[in-house]
Specification:
Length: about 325
């Protein structure tokens, strides 16, 4: 459960006075998520999500995240809209944290997405990449290749506590990716964390995308690689599922064809994206205070995915043909 900062009812009622969303009838902490503290609010106007921004969110980035949701929603992407306060701003402060209220999206996230869901994801990701064009604010990806070594330095000494041999394996991989990271690929606004828990479905229909708090300007195909990792492996066996990968890539390409350079770079991007999620998970694994109300995510899942990508030489290895 991700509630790092608790709130009192009195403080919440005071915070809500800045909004025009009716009277609070109930609220509870949300038992999902990793990064921020989230609460489901019920008011006489309906349900809303309250987010208190935590450690990994730089407050200077909040105008980018909140503005991006407004930009995307105005272009037809189903994503939460930040609510405007009576004074015209989007952000307030609650329990010492920057805080915002966003609209509630219907739907649930899928624990075991199948190929048709991966196809829906591919269409939605390409739509998001297109809709991001023209967004005026910029934010560099703090968790791209330049950000990996500083993060690794914080986990490296104790990495073999997670699994024997990890330190040497990651040292070698990081050095390789720093030498070979592709440059000059088409770039734009990317979501950068489009895992199944950030995509809602009703039945087989994709109904919304949430959690834009890693969004940034970076290589568009890096988002594609992140989705291959997060959606296209079999949960139980950990094996890459080519049917899901093909469905995802074909649907993405139907809306936004990958350039030959992007296709060629896919195995490298997938390795880099796997390393990025390994690193944040490893850091969290080693540094999470005991008793924090959060379910830790397994770094080794991403080490195994990384090792799979090390065996892939061309995008044909993901089932991409033609
Ligand atoms: N706009 C929303 N509509 C409905 N539920 C939401 C919304 N935003 C967040 N949630 C719920 O809160 C959970 C955590 O949100 P998320 O943004 O992923 O948190 P974190 O940034 O901490 O990872 C989601 O899995 C979902 O259950
Ligand atoms: N998706 C990341 C963790 C970030 O959590 P989220 O709840 O913000 O998606 C991972 O799986 O490591």
């Amino acid at each position: 459960m991700a509630v790092y900062t608790d709130i009192t009812e009195g403080a919440l009622r005071g915070f809500l006075e800045a909004y025009d969303i009716g009277r609070l009838t109930a609220y509870k902490g949300i038992a999902e998520g990793v990064e921020n503290s989230n609460f489901l609010l019920h008011t006489t106007e309906g349900p809303f999500i309250l987010t208190l921004y935590e450690k990994r969110v730089n407050p200077d980035d909040l105008p980018f995240f909140l503005g991006l949701m407004e930009h995307l929603a105005a272009r037809g992407i189903s994503c939460p809209l930040p609510l405007t306060r009576r004074d015209g701003t989007l952000l307030g402060e609650l329990a010492g944290r920057p805080a915002a209220i966003i609209t509630f999206l219907e739907g649930i996230w899928l624990r075991q997405p199948e190929a048709p869901h991966c196809a829906a994801l591919g269409r939605a990701l390409a739509g998001l990449h297109r809709a991001g064009e023209g967004f005026a604010l910029k934010r560099a990806n703090a968790l791209s290749v330049e950000g990996w070594r500083p993060l690794w330095e914080k986990a490296r000494e104790r990495a073999d506590e997670i699994a024997e041999g990890l330190r040497a394996g990651i040292d070698a991989e990081l050095a390789f990716l720093e030498r070979s990271w592709p440059k000059g690929l088409p770039s734009g606004v990317i979501h950068a964390d489009l895992f199944p828990d950030n995509v809602f479905f009703i039945g087989d229909a994709l109904t919304g995308i949430i959690d834009f708090y890693f969004a940034c300007n970076d290589t568009l195909a890096y988002d594609v690689a992140t989705c291959l990792n997060a959606w296209c492996f079999d949960d139980k066996s950990g094996v890459y599922d080519a049917a899901k990968g093909q469905a995802f890539l074909a649907a993405y390409q139907a809306e936004r064809p990958l350039t030959p350079d992007e296709v060629a770079a896919l195995p490298l991007l997938a390795r880099g994206s796997a390393l990025r999620f390994f690193l944040t998970r490893a850091y969290d694994w080693l540094s999470m205070p005991p008793g924090a109300l959060v379910v830790k995510k397994d770094p080794l899942e991403y080490w195994r995915k990384l090792r799979f990508h090390q065996t892939i030489e061309t995008a044909e290895g993901y089932g991409l043909t033609g």
